[in-house]
Specification:
Helices cover about 30% and strands about 20% of the residues. With about 230 residues, the chain is of the alpha/beta class. It has two domains: about 20-70 and about 165-234, 2-Layer Sandwich (Ribulose 1,5 Bisphosphate Carboxylase/Oxygenase); about 80-160, 3-Layer(aba) Sandwich (Rossmann fold). α3 runs parallel beside α7. The longest helix has 17 residues, at about 185-200. The two termini are about 25 Å apart.
Length: about 230
């Protein structure tokens, strides 16, 4: 219901017969299998899907936050910084890809969304708030909770470049995220995975009394999903 089925080639189907995809694996074993069943010619992303035992009708159970992955995601993140002129030099030095104010607000109003993260400062949120209907559905609206609204936007940019990512449950109580690339070592992917799960557990709302982590799956961009043993994380 929640995981999209991925098209696989005839060669993949033959190779998949060597593995039991109904079995539950520890993370290290699962990552080894993912590496063996990924045949794409590009550096595929490693994806994680968590189903959480939350009630989306309760605002305090909507899980959102950020995590600093030890080895990053391997993905180049395009950052837009909407800041006042005196902040522009600092955010450019920090690595922001696009920097400005009115120019980019107008571009977004006209449909431009060629960026992954929008960073801004508190004094400009009244201007950016009008973009909520455009940015909100795409998950691009800046938020103080994940640090994208800050008096030190340059630090936020440095953190993002080092591997800080944001996450949020969807309407089904599921979190989708990238935790690295297929080219990463098993050890580095495992550390990224564990840091991600640790952060999810750390922000568990007190109002949740039952099972918090319902299921965990990992996959590469074009591979089947593998179920991870959730018991050790609950």
């Amino acid at each position: 219901m929640f995981l999209k089925k991925k098209k696989i080639s005839k060669n993949q189907k033959k190779f998949y017969k060597n593995f039991d995809f109904e079995k539950i694996y520890d993370i290290k074993s699962a990552l080894k299998i993912i590496k063996k069943i990924t045949f794409v010619k590009f550096d595929s992303s490693i994806n994680i899907v968590l189903k959480l035992g939350i009630n989306n009708d309760k605002p305090d159970q909507i899980i959102r936050g950020c995590v600093q992955l030890p080895y990053g995601t391997g993905k180049k993140i395009k950052i837009l910084s909407i800041v006042t002129p005196e902040k522009e030099t600092d955010v450019i030095k920090a690595g922001s890809d696009y920097v400005g104010f009115e120019k980019y607000i107008n571009k977004i109003k006209n449909g431009w969304k060629d960026f992954d993260v929008l960073v801004t400062i508190p004094s400009l949120m009244s201007k950016i708030g009008n973009l909520g209907k455009i940015l909100g559905p795409k998950g691009l609206m800046p938020n103080p909770k994940n640090g994208t609204v800050s008096i030190n936007p340059e630090q936020t940019i440095l953190d993002i470049k080092k591997g800080k990512i944001n996450f949020k449950t969807d309407r089904y109580g599921i979190i989708h995220s990238v935790i690295g690339k297929i080219s990463f070592s098993i050890e580095n992917l495992e550390k990224n995975f564990l840091e991600f799960i640790y952060e999810i557990k750390k922000i568990k709302p007190n109002s949740i009394k039952g099972e918090y982590i319902k299921s965990i799956f990992i996959s590469s961009t074009m591979s089947k999903s593998i179920k991870i043993n959730k018991k050790i994380f609950n």
